[in-house]
């Protein structure tokens, strides 16, 4: 069972608008102020809320970091709230709880407030960009645009007509940016100065959603806002406007607000992959958007995550790979992170093969899948080793990772921790084999460009690339990233299942999440934390005012990055661009056609043995060659191509080849002549095992079993295929025994006719023992596939065994 994930998915503002356009109303916030109330709690509900919040904070892994960096202990703040709770009004209770938790300055630790309060938001009409300055801690903010909600400008009134993009912010309500930070830094959930400033501009005085923040910080907080601005940075003349703050009311939210004592009574389900939640799951706003400085192309099928383009100006040719976030921007998506990883590789190999250099643009990326962040470095650095994570040693954790609920790796790390140690031994959420599935895909100079809104999994990727020296330079629109150094889990999507006796669920549809697994860096920054510190940049660079207006698609930022990286590439002599195309057939040679430059030797290996090699004379022009291997049997095989320049290895990339039988070798079924498989890999069968698994179908004591037939590990994906030639009704007799984790691990039998869609004959989970016949129609050739899969998490003490299988017409 996948207890090591969370279900929170970050939505972009555009996705939120499109899904709620017919149910949302806007008006001056003063009209909604008294409607944004908190529901009344019974004495039992108050007790349950406080008990679960306090208990969850006993496994909050970043508590020590907050005490060390800010002198703030969230549990001590909770003690004061607990003492006053019995005599507090609902408004006092919820507001004090939210402020105490938000004051922790951790975007992963969040209390989701109840309706009707959570159905409202306070919106300020202007959005901001930070432009170039000599002093990163004396920021210059200029108007980027009006908020994405067109209704907001209408409600705010004609005073906004004087404001134009590029006008410079002097103050908001009489306070400069740094004065705003001093006053509101403890309310933003931003971990450091840069994340705090950007959160103030986009959240506190941008869109303040009632799910995570009190929409009114105090009863006497203004319901209007006064801006002082000037038209140019060098202007001495200012102007002042005062406009109402705008309220947003979500009628759909109000209509579905839960009223039961305990919300979300349906059984929670778990997604497949660990997610590091973004700082604000309701009102994340991509302040870059991928279009303001360079037109980018969105890669189809990546859920809005991946965009790319080329910056060409004055002879430069810079590939720009934009990652908006690490999980889908739309709800209900079935997108898998492996799909995005493959798409990134395809862009690197096919779209960027003629570029001089590459920059990963991670600005305003709020995070998402851990696996995606761990899988990207392999394209630029061979044998990448993902960062590790650790738990806080605590009685509650003794019942979760200490009881195996987080999976074998987490259990082994936690259970082997010496007594008295504050944190558990480390483990990896992504295995090195999974993180290096493809290998290198781009050898020219690579850089990262991020900012203080780069958070969580975005921090993790930035750290991984820097720690393993996979990039030439880290550019930043701030001096540090946002510093979200933990993965996140909540009560509703994790703890209600992991420890239901401790967490029956919060009342009134609420939820509470914490930073649960603390990330620890490795490589050249071994042992350092990400939380509160973020990732330090090598070069501070912000856009100029003229960049905002995108004249001739020119960008001072991309100018700088393109010229610096090209100079690095020329100095290092890095100009190799290997490509590999594959053509193959069973019983013939598998040909890997390559095009490369600056390579003096290429080797093709299978199972770490060299099966072919080619030598070249060093030259700048590209050279074509072919590496070959013989397909001796059916299956999935892992080939590696190694490239050397004067005995120095500069390339290590993987290719996976699935070999299938020639149609002449298919098993030809004839009426009245059943064929029983003897569990040997005949010419008409093949084993296709995911190469990262530690268990697969094996022949053992005359049976076909997964692993040793008694236990199986996490993340198994193994199958055996039978290639059949038959016309008519095919009968498959299968004798199967299976003890797997119910609803999470499955045995599946499918049939795929040549050129057709697969048909599932059965899919079972849990305890199964049967000898059954399955029948399907076949008109010619097809593939019958028997697969077993297990998810990450609890490894059920059981096995999967095929005692017999036969085929007949």
UniProtKB/TrEMBL annotation:
Q: Where is the Tail specific protease domain?
A: 317-471
Query: Signal sequence span per UniProt?
Result: 1-19
SUPFAM superfamilies the record matches:
ClpP/crotonase
What UniProt keywords apply to this chain's record, in alphabetical order?
Answer: Signal
What does the record list as GO biological process? Answer: proteolysis
- Give GO terms: molecular function aspect only: endopeptidase activity; serine-type peptidase activity
Q: Does the keyword Repressor apply?
A: no
Please indicate which superkingdom the organism of origin belongs to: Eukaryota
- Key word DNA repair present: no
Against PANTHER family, the record matches this protein to: CARBOXYL-TERMINAL-PROCESSING PEPTIDASE 3, CHLOROPLASTIC, TAIL-SPECIFIC PROTEASE
Question: What is the protein name stated in its UniProt record?
Answer: Tail specific protease domain-containing protein
> What's the source species for this entry?
Clydaea vesicula
